Amino acid sequence: MKHIIITGTSRGIGESLANQLINPAHHLICISRTANEGLLARAKELDCHLDYFNYDLTDISGIEQLVENVFSRIELRSSDETIYLINNAAMLTPVSPIERLETEQIVENLHLNLLAPMVITSNFLRLTKHMNADKKILNISSASAKYILPSQSAYSTAKAGLDSFTKCIDIEQKLATYPAKAAAVYPGMIDTSLQSEIRSVSTELFPYVNEFIQLSEEGKLQSPEYTASKLIEILVSEDFGKTVLIETID
């Protein structure tokens, strides 16, 4: 049995990942602010094991208990089993020069994009430390961590931090008795709500908005379904973790 924890499954990549991973051999644990009724219905129709946790991951204080609750639904019986964590939940907003941002907007962005994956991962590793099983952590990062544009300081900073965090995990886990493997992936430019959000921003706040609109109009954005399939290929690969930062999924 593969136990797969995925955050941000209400829409976009997370929803596509969960849809493609619904399988009788998989136990999916989905986390998002609001439940995805479509995923729940499909899992029920196919008689697949899916647990759903409604939780706002910007509330860092409750994540430890959330992960405890998740693991109360997981039973690893042997080293043949696997447990994967996909830190996918993210937000792009606020898109604006830093001096125009409210403190609460900066905090919310960094909570969801960086602190939540760190705290989830910390508790995931703590609760699996003594488990001799196949353990993998896939962090969905962004090319924005490396290729910096104006008005995305919170998002880019958080994703750069997520990259560094993943590298730290890799180093630490090499010293563990039962190590987990970790990788961060830049999934590319995808036709999701995050892209819709940035296309709706004024040129005053984001000077490159017209370039993003053009990419969409020319059909150059990847679909969430294609992106999810490539991410799953990476996740299940025997080479997972050999490259800690994957900058392309093509």
Defining traits:
250 residues, alpha/beta, Rossmann fold, seven-stranded parallel beta sheet, 16% strand, globular
Report a brief summary of the structure:
This protein is α/β, with parallel strands linked by helices and 250 residues long. The chain has helices at residues 12-21, 37-45, 63-71, 103-128, 153-173, 193-199, 209-217, 224-236; strands at residues 2-7, 26-32, 49-54, 82-87, 134-140, 181-185, 245-246. It has a single domain, classed as NAD(P)-binding Rossmann-like Domain (Rossmann fold).
The portion of residues assigned to helices is 40-55%
Distance between the termini: 29 Å
Number of strands: 7
Average residue pLDDT: 92
Q: Which structural class do you get from the secondary structure elements?
A: alpha/beta
Order of helices and strands: EHEHEHEHEHEHHHE
Query: pLDDT below 50 for ≥5 consecutive residues: which ranges?
Result: none
Report the C-alpha radius of gyration, rounded: 18 Å
Q: What is the C-level CATH assignment?
A: Alpha Beta
Output the number of helix runs: 8
Global shape:
globular
Let me know the CATH homologous superfamily: NAD(P)-binding Rossmann-like Domain
| CATH architecture title | 3-Layer(aba) Sandwich
Q: Number of domains in the coordinates?
A: 1
Q: Could you say what the CATH topology is called? A: Rossmann fold
Strand-residue fraction? 15-25%
Adjacency order of strands in the biggest sheet: 3-2-1-4-5-6-7
Summarize the main sheet. Answer: 7 strands, parallel
